[in-house]
Design a protein that fits this description.
Length: about 325
């Protein structure tokens, strides 16, 4: 079953669940828990206004537990002040609410208030020193603060508590972000062994190999990614970029063309560079023109114009 069909089935199941809860509400409009359950279903669909309305109705009916759900919905909706107000209310009522600290910490991350996020993620650790998820979340917050040593320490702790896929994945990307490519590659290699059919490990390791300058190994990983991934756009773009760096322009053009066919208009720029290297100026200019006409990246448009000027148009 393709990812697209899975998503369709999930949406159909959510529609059925929502319809069932709506029927229950018609029969018993004063049952607050049903509004909460339907709100969670709406939240899963990304229908935030309807989710908030349901949680608000539950609160009106006296269900204070719905503040946590409404705070989460506000956070996902981007209404951070309201999210923090609801989640803070939960914490004031129940200082041991791990969920409220999680949610508020994520809101602070989204707001760029990383120190406050670290404080919130520290609370679950104080309540349960063996909570690997808390260390992982706090480690990611430290990354955003630029506190890389503390981030590594937290992710090491998370892995020591639970050496699972996600914890290793996060540490691998931390190592990659701080240019410790060999350590990143070691972590991503663990991922490919833990789940050889998952594309994440190959994409991540391929990226790390490319950043290290080992383009042949990067190409091997991106090729594997293309075979495994039902939506291989990233694989074609990344492999094409590696081919471009290795001056294998025909192969780069083939991969960028695949990426363009899959909907990535920005690959017109990279393909234009490859065409220009082969002396195919009309094709290069046509690609750069697409960027100028259709790109929403304000930094890429002047680059495309500059490339056209180089070609003498």
């Amino acid at each position: 079953m393709t990812t697209e069909w899975r998503l369709i089935l999930e949406q159909l199941q959510l529609e059925k669940v929502i319809a069932d809860f709506s029927k229950s509400i018609e029969l018993n409009p004063d049952e607050s828990s049903t509004y909460v359950k339907r709100g969670v279903a709406y939240l899963s669909k990304g229908e935030y206004e309807k989710a908030v309305a349901g949680f608000s109705r539950a609160i009106e009916l006296g269900d204070d537990s719905a503040y946590l759900d409404r705070g989460s919905a506000y956070g996902q909706k981007g209404e951070y002040a309201r999210a923090i107000a609801d989640l803070t209310k939960v914490i004031e009522t129940n200082p041991n609410s791990v969920g409220a600290y999680w949610e508020r910490g994520q809101v602070y991350i989204n707001k760029g208030e990383y120190a406050k996020a670290v404080t919130d993620y520290t609370k679950p650790i104080e309540m349960d020193p063996n909570n690997d998820l808390a260390y992982r979340h706090r480690g990611v917050a430290y990354v955003d603060m630029g506190e890389n040593d503390k981030a590594v320490a937290d992710l090491n702790k998370a892995i020591s508590l639970r050496p699972d896929y996600q914890n290793i994945y996060e540490r691998g990307w931390l190592y990659e972000c701080i240019d410790k490519h060999d350590k990143a590659i070691a972590d991503f290699t663990k991922l490919t062994r833990m789940n050889p059919e998952a594309p994440d490990g190959y994409y991540s390791r391929g990226w790390a190999y490319a950043e290290k300058g080992n383009y042949d190994m990067a190409i091997a990983d991106f090729t594997k990614l293309i075979k495994l991934n039902p939506d291989p756009l990233d694989g074609y773009y990344c492999r094409g970029d590696a081919y471009l760096t290795l001056e294998k322009y025909d192969k780069a053009i083939a991969d960028f063309t695949k990426a363009i066919d899959l909907g990535d208009i920005y690959c017109h720029f990279s393909r234009g560079l490859a065409y220009a290297k082969l002396g195919k100026n009309p094709e290069a200019i046509a690609d750069f023109d697409v960027i100028i006409r259709l790109s929403e990246d304000p930094e890429l448009i002047p680059k495309a114009k500059k490339e056209i000027n180089k070609l003498g148009k």
